[in-house]
Design brief:
- The chain has 499 residues and is α/β, with parallel strands linked by helices.
- The strands form 2 sheets. An 8-stranded mixed sheet has the order 2-3-1-4-8-7-5-6. Strands 11-10-9-12-13-15-14 form a 7-stranded mixed sheet, sandwiched between helices.
- Strand 10, helix 8 and strand 11 form a beta-alpha-beta unit.
- Helix 2 packs across helix 7, helix 5 packs across helix 6 and helix 9 runs parallel beside helix 10.
Length: 499
Amino acid sequence: MNEFELIAKTFMGLEPVLAKELTQLGANNVQIGRRMVSFTGDKEMMYRANFQLHTAIRILKPIARFKARSADEVYEEVKKIDWSKYIEKGKTFSVDSVVYSEEFRNSRFVTYKVKDAIVDQFRENTGTRPNISVSNPDIRLNIHIAEADATLSLDSSGESLHRRGYRQESVEAPLNEVLAAGMILMTGWRGETDFIDPMCGSGTLLVEAALIAHNMSPGIFRKEFAFEKWPDFDAELFDTIYNDDSQEREFIHHIYGYDIDMKAVNTARLNVRAAGLSNDITVENADFKDFTQPKEKSLLVVNPPYGERISTPNLLNTYKMIGERLKHAFMGNEAWVLSYREECFEAIGLKPSIKIPVYNGSLECEFRKYAIFDGTMKDFRQEGGIVKTEDEKRQMAEKHRFKKNREFKKRLDEDEENAESDIRSFKFHSIERRKQNDDRRGGNDRRGRDRFDRDDKDFKGKGFKSKGFGDKGGKSFGKGSRYGKSDRKRSNRDFDNED
């Protein structure tokens, strides 16, 4: 097949992880950019990228590049393209614009110019015009303008790839699936040990961990991809990719999720059952302060509250408790913590092996690794223990890995000031910051708009004092019946878009 250029979009901080995924998938000319990774491949590679990548938000296929110094120039350049090759008679389309330009302050204006050029070409050539559909178009287009450089692409994904399809319900501020998968891949864990999330919320980290442990394609739950409506769609090729589970592997360990909120526990259980992974994941109602040493070697990944909705004293006490539990009940294992405030990390009271900057929505967070050992660091090293790998030392030595002014302390002081004020003098700093961010982004920037947001069995929970219980009676979509994977019939699939 012919090879062409493709672009995989992702979140800030996940670019190296995505690049590694693409390389392992067999993509060529992989190059890291800002919130994206470019690569080349054929039609099969494009299908696989959509279906198999854990850390991509969407896959774009560029079809034109041109200078966009004015609205008229955008219109004329778009009109030069033979749109009959991409949009068949009777089909609908939509345009998504991402603009970073002094010339174009409103991305919707760019969207309208692209739509006008396409519609006018069809009207002049055929006397009819294609219709626009925002919710469920046949063809999705994406135009990206950076200053005067424009790239017009076909969107092969459609709905953001973070919308796997297994999430039935969610708790407040759920962790984005792509970010969760990226965090797990950063740890290097591929299912070699047990996995624990002691504050699991709606269970996103748990499900993504199981997918990675089994090397399952996250696209298995999706109803559709945008490329399935393209004129040159190869249904036989995609069916072969869809039904190929030869790379999946057995997972002999277990994944444990805990949460103090029973509503979150029930939500996580529902999502785990919907993913058909109840044999691999157990979710229990438990408080992290009751955490005890797990019997098996484990990796712990946790995304605690950042303090956006919790008062400062409770927040710092929560992180102090996390550090205390890790130090006394997680010896011989690795723990990774995602958070936002420096004061929170300081409250943990442990020295991290590595700090990785990642974005959770608009917040520049840090993902920190802690090697938990008994005794002194000197003794640990003398016994052959590794606190920081050579690769981690190299990463930590890189300059400009973090912003110089993260405003951790400023935000903490603001919250303390708010806590001491009454409603007449309360300063809504979060709203002010949001307005400032919107102003900086031009109000219409789409950056971050994609964000956040096998049979059941009884189990005696590891790591907590309380006795655990499985989600009995849950419906399983396990291997052989996972959303009809074994005999996937495209004509029987539901193509209603839930965008």
